[in-house]
Amino acid sequence: MNGVDPVNEVTADRTFTVPKGRAARLLPALFRAVGFTAEQVVATLGATDPVDLVRNTGTYALLTDHLSDQLCRTPAGLLTQLFVRNAPVPADDYRTVLPEELRRALYCSGIVTGTADLVRGRFSVTPVASRYFLSDQLFAFDDAGDVELTDGVDVVLPPHASSMALLRYAAEAEPGGPLIDVGSGCGVLGVSLAARHRSLTALDVNPRAAHLSRVNAELNGVAARVLVEDVTTGGFPVPDGSLLLFNTPTTIRYADGGRSSAAMPPRRALESVVGLLPAGRGCHARLFLVVEVPRGVRSASDLVASWLTDVPVDRLDVREIRDSAAFVPAAMIPQGRVGPQCPLLRHGGDAPPLARHLRDREVHEVVPVTVSVSR
Description:
This protein is α/β, with parallel strands linked by helices. Among the domains are: 21-149, no CATH class; 248-375, no CATH class. 33% of the residues lie in helices and 19% in strands. The strands form four sheets. A seven-stranded mixed sheet has the order 10-9-8-11-12-14-13, with helices on both faces. A three-stranded antiparallel sheet has the order 1-3-2. A two-stranded antiparallel ribbon has the order 4-5. The longest helix is centred in the N-terminal third of the chain and has 13 residues, at 21-33. Residues 1-16 have low confidence and may be disordered.
């Protein structure tokens, strides 16, 4: 790295790093100064609203490939190309379009990489309201313009539709007490709601996710205690009056024939979180679950309630989200179909094997729900 000008060059080292130091803390203000905001990205890519964008980022990235040259003419467009479309930009455009202070902060933060000809982002950057969240890139355009998908058990997801659903639901809860973000991922829930609560603790079993939660808290000026923790083992002390949030990492394992359908079965997720709540001390939890409703069960709400029949709770509220892209109606399963944007699909052409898997397991429908529990 000797002799490299941090304003005009970027590192070619592509190993995993995280933003560091004062430069990372400068990024939100610098992003806003050039118009790289949620509203601008929505308008640039033609999405309906921020929820539509995070639900269908990959689709919008593909549909706007013809805009690549145009995007690189403005700072906000170039940042959208780098961090939302996850596509490379010409090094000459990078140097001439972005302000010097922003280029310096990006370089010193370590979130860009490149060569003499092309610059690309190491992370996705998702604007949510007035905040910014770094995550792994679920897809990226290579130098030839082809899309590469990212896979791996430790991949940290960007904010997505379920994040926004639980964020809206959690905002209805009474503010004030400690906030515990369980399975924090990139930290979007805890960081977004931290100002409403006395303190923030973020927990994730994935060290990589915990690291990015810490980074995003610092990036957005939020004080957070971040721990690598497996809540399914129990024993984590929950302070009085706490609100626990858990956006469960549900993935239907239709491709491997596994007996366990979900990455973390929703019943286990619910029981683990409710088990952390001390009775009679004003604690409550809110979760997002994707529920496979068996044939013969009247509704997802009834199924979730049945999971807690042996657990004393003061209040249980289950809301079904049938307008979610993850909803698979009963009529579609026998036809071998699911919604075209269903996030349960690993690949675009996987609707038939997913539907067949659900049919073989005698699943009537798949229903996303938000759950509120108090003890």
